[in-house]
Write a structure and sequence with these properties.
Length: 405
Amino acid sequence: MNAFHALCRQSLDSIRAQGRYRTFTPLAKQADGFPYYRDPAGKDVLVWSSNDYLAMGGHPVLVEAACEAARSMGVGAGGTRNISGTSPLIDALERELADLHGKQAALLFTSGFVSNQASLSTILNSMPAGPDLRWQVFSDAKNHASMIAGIKGSKAAVNIFHHNDMAHLEALLKAAPPAAPKLIVFESVYSMDADIAPIGAICDLATRYGAMTYLDEVHAVGMYGPNGGGVSERDRVAHRVDIVEGTLAKAFGCHGGYIAGDTDVVDFIRSTAPGFIFTTSLPPPTAAAALAAVRHVRADQARRDKLFERADALKRRFDAAGLPRIESESHIVPLHIGDADLVMEVSNRLLNEFGMYATPINYPTVPRGEERLRFTPGPLHTDAMMDALVAALLAIVQPARRAAA
């Protein structure tokens, strides 16, 4: 065995010993039965942690749009947009997304991870590397791995500010070279802690110190604001954000990522980002379904209202039952467990004994000691489902904690 194979084995043994080894739970999503999935034995499993927040993934409007596109254009794009041409569906989807965010232009990528990584690395490598001229990037301490990857792939000087801490962000901005280009990178909804960034305050600092803003709205698009444009739309500050990044894979129920912003900035990224140029474009069925999803969700306020009503209902039930819910400003409902082995045990028992699934979240996604289950109730989770979930958690969590102690 060579040194690398030995390293792989040692690392995996260490991950297992820490209770952090990740296994995939085989579950088949049911288009007409969501939020139920089906396990390999054919049993229904009630899923509580899907990012299909608005239950759009099986919506008949989307399914029909995808089927029609597959029948007329096939199931594959056939290459990059440079090689195989750009589909009219993708052009229409980019126009729709730009309009959703009140921006001049938008650009589609194959995933939200790629859109962050490719866009940030391209922007932050665009200026000379001199100490007073290279980009200064200011990144929230809890930013997503895709944003961190884009930042690490650049020559920028990196400044990490404490999570949602405006005083610390301002101190870093003030200490940076005044003439250097500056970019503040942050999210709207932080999906593990379920809290929300003070977007307006960040924009105030950006204006004061001559910085651009890059906002990841992946856990907010489709849900927040009168059109589903995200927290920035809800807070009426979208026009102050330079670049918005979003996904089609969560509330819109499809797949793909995108950015939206000024025409020249978007065109620069389109023309220079390897993560866009050398990647096959979204296939026609996906683009068609995504276009149908954005158009439908923008007009479906009732679906958004139901999402937040359901989230509030589950929070109230957890609180009434004395379950250790982490405070949440958003539609995401985290439940604190605090131990890697215990969070796996609770998740496994919930599945095996009660036919429900909630994703265990452990290090490095969250710090050690902050392990949790993450619940995302949606429009189709009923009161009866919530009551059954609370009863199951009461039967598992407290006895498991006592046994672990």
